[in-house]
Sequence to fold (224 residues):
Amino acid sequence: MTEQCLSILNELRALSNEKAARIYQKQVVDELVLGCTKGPVRKIAKAYIPNHELGLELWSTNIYEARIMAIMILDPKRISIKDLDALLIQSKSVAVIDELTLEIFENFNEPLALFEAWVHHKDLMHQRAAWNSLIVLIHRKRPSEQEVTRHLDTIEARLVASPEIVKYAMNRAMVEIGINYPSLTQRILTNSERLGVYKEVMVAKGCTSPYAPDWINAVLRRNA
Fold:
């Protein structure tokens, strides 16, 4: 391990606290946890953006906070689908996979091709990553309405029976369609009420419910 990487790990350890560690443990983080919140991690990362080699070294430590920092400083233009596949199989933490894929897909050349390759992958984390790629594309309004409708058909058919790891990302993709494609909003509101996914989930005051009608309406009100 390089001195630079060791120095960063020491910085992260110095900023750790038990409260943050308990939160990450509740999130079922698979990596080793120091207990450093994302704000300080981002502040340290700013001095190294981009540094692809250092990012890969931090990732290899299997420390949660180091991997979050790695994601912040990796160069997306130097990551191929094969590289991303190798990174995905090294983590079973949803928080890490989401951070990695949603960040990388912002600058990925062909996220739609990746979606098609991974949406039926035997590994559930790859399936979640596939839906994350679609979330980024939908947010940018890149797919045609016809293409988005095809994905919406799939979501509505599979959402209820999907494993939770995949279900949340599919539900979020549906929400993004409802927000960004006005002609499909009412369909999604109606069908998501019928499906009832996350309808009973209780959220803290000030937080947005994952229940699609509540989530969509909250964003549309905010954007009005």
